């Protein structure tokens, strides 16, 4: 559940480290968070809109690939435990929304958000790191978290229907090794990065190892985990 408090105001001047969002490194904010007990009210993510651009399209949805900056604070004392601008040479973070790459509270908090929008979100422990906390990220047990987020881009995610259909050349609703191999070659040619000759085969094998759950040599729409529609 999420409660949105629409409130338009200029961005704060002290956000130099980044009005930002959430992905400590991916491993941090995706660390297991268990909701253990608590009332229904404790399950609610509170959302305050700090800035909403006049043009708001497209709005983020499950499966989209987002690019954003964010700061993370402990609600108890206001101390900052993360700033994305100090990581990866200050580049905004990329992640797929709604698939567990970040904590559940952030997956909820960043739905229906548009490029250029800024939010301040408050996430209860049950939708963050629960009773166990996350020592590596300096997050104590039962911590309520606050994130200040600035979203830069909303793109179709790698698990979208469009992406699946792009790879599925013969339209049989399953991806063969040949189809994915060809897709990888096209992607490699597009980004122009130098790779060791073995990289293609290693990545292809890794894709099937992680996605071909029934080991039939194909990746079905269900195994691919398409998020936008059920008709596949």
Plain-language structure description:
The chain has 232 residues and is an alpha+beta fold. It has 2 domains: 43-156, Chitinase A, domain 3 (Roll); 158-231, Orthogonal Bundle (Recoverin, domain 1), CATH 1.10.238. It has 6 helices and 9 strands; from the N terminus they run E-H-E-E-E-E-H-E-E-H-E-H-H-E-H. It has helices spanning 26-29, 104-109, 161-167, 177-191, 199-211, 221-224; strands at residues 2-5, 45-51, 65-74, 80-83, 93-96, 118-123, 145-155, 174-176, 218-220. The strands form 2 sheets. Strands 1, 2, 3, 4, 5, 6 and 7 form a 7-stranded mixed β-sheet that branches. Helix 1 links the parallel strand 1 and strand 2 (45-51). Helix 4 crosses helix 5. It starts with a strand and ends in an 8-residue tail after the last helix. It catalyses: [protein]-peptidylproline (omega=180) = [protein]-peptidylproline (omega=0). Its EC number is 5.2.1.8.
Short summary of the structure?
With 232 residues, this protein is an alpha+beta fold.
């Amino acid at each position: 559940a999420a409660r949105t408090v629409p409130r338009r105001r200029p961005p704060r001047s002290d956000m130099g480290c980044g009005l930002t969002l959430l992905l400590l490194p991916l491993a941090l904010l995706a660390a297991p968070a268990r909701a253990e007990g608590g009332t229904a009210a404790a399950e609610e993510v509170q959302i305050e809109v700090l800035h909403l651009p006049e043009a708001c399209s497209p709005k983020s949805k499950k499966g989209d690939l987002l690019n954003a900056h964010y700061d993370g604070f402990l609600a108890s004392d206001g101390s900052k435990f993360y700033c994305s601008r100090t990581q990866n040479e200050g580049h905004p973070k990329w992640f797929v929304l709604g698939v567990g790459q970040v904590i559940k509270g952030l997956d909820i908090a960043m739905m229906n958000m548009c490029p250029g929008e800024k939010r301040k979100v408050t996430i209860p422990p049950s939708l963050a790191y629960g009773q166990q906390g996350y020592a590596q990220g300096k997050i104590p047990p039962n911590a309520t978290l606050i994130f200040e987020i600035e979203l830069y881009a909303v793109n179709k995610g790698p698990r979208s229907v469009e992406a699946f259909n792009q790879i599925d050349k013969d339209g049989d609703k399953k991806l063969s090794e040949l189809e994915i191999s060809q897709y990888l070659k096209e992607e490699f040619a597009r980004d122009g990065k130098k790779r060791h000759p073995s990289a293609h085969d290693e990545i292809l094998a890794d894709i099937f190892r992680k996605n071909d759950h029934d080991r039939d040599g194909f990746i079905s729409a269900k195994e691919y985990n398409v998020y936008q529609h059920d008709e596949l």
